[in-house]
Amino acid sequence: MSMSFRLLLPQQIYEEMMDQAVAELPNECCGLLAGHVEEQRVARVQRRYALVNAMASPTRYLSEDRSLLNAFRDARASGLEFLAVYHSHPCSAAIPSRTDLASNYWDEVVHFIISLAKDPPEVQGWWLTSRDYEPAEWDIVPG
Question: Going from the N-terminus, what domains does the chain have, and what CATH number goes with each?
Fold first, then answer.
């Protein structure tokens, strides 16, 4: 497994992710982060797409088709590429579960997991495959 880039996540978008995770309790939330790779191995998030969890489950998520299609259309029209996906774990750690690994379909993006098991929430970024994971490099930046 190789890490493609270090992700720069603006503070405001980070806070919006946290707010969405709390607002959707007791269910998992999900969403996409888009932006640009700015230079070799550094990418900056510019837009967040909050998606609807069609499963409405505290242990699983599935992005609802319409919200996903709208995100893809907007990103394409804006010239953005998807850099990360995120979802929450309402009651467990910010570590990929077996379900997360088995349902991974996107190895080329960072996978953020927001754990709401403790206060304050914990966020970890990962590179996933269907069988393994390793930490992603990321930083919160002003903005």
Answer: 6-141 (3.40.140.10)
Q: Which of 15, 16, 24, 28 is catalytic?
A: 28
Which residues 6+ apart lie within 8 Å of 77 measured at CB? none
Q: What single letter denotes the amino acid at residue 133?
A: Y
pLDDT tens for residues 79-109?
A: 999 999 999 999 999 999 999 998 888 889 9
Least confident of 1-5, 18-22, 31-35, 79-83: 1-5
- 93 Cβ neighbours under 8 A, 6+ residues apart: 115, 117, 122
Is the pLDDT higher at 25 or at 38? 25
The rounded distance, in Å, linking the Cα atoms of 100 and 73 is 25
Is 15 designated active site?
A: no
H/E element, 143: none
